[in-house]
Amino acid sequence: MMIRFYAASAAIYLGAALAEIAGCFAFWAWLRQDKSAGWLIPGLLSLALFAYLLTRIDVSAAGRAYAAYGGLYIVTSLGWLWLAEGIRPNGWDAAGAGLAIAGALVILVGTQVTR
Fold this sequence. Notes:
InterPro entries: EmrE-like, UPF0060
Pfam families: UPF0060
Family: Belongs to the UPF0060 family.
Keywords: Cell membrane, Membrane, Transmembrane, Transmembrane helix
Shape: flat
Subcellular location: Cell membrane
């Protein structure tokens, strides 16, 4: 049961992170890279998907879901940096991502232990 909870949470968080990053990047491209305003339509849809996905996390409080999400968001953002922007993360990035994931795991494990 616990493995299913963590696997489902990780999948939802990964989907939410990709949706948020894609949505925010659409605005970045429009404002910083002179792309057309047409980029905003998929960007807004992507941000709406991000918000919806976070409601699917099985925890008792929204703030806890958002706090745990932060760890996976950081790792996913570094993946975006490397794959979409062509900039390889460095050791400091990896260390920060590791700390963020550790913090997210503490929050998620704590929600299951105190149930």
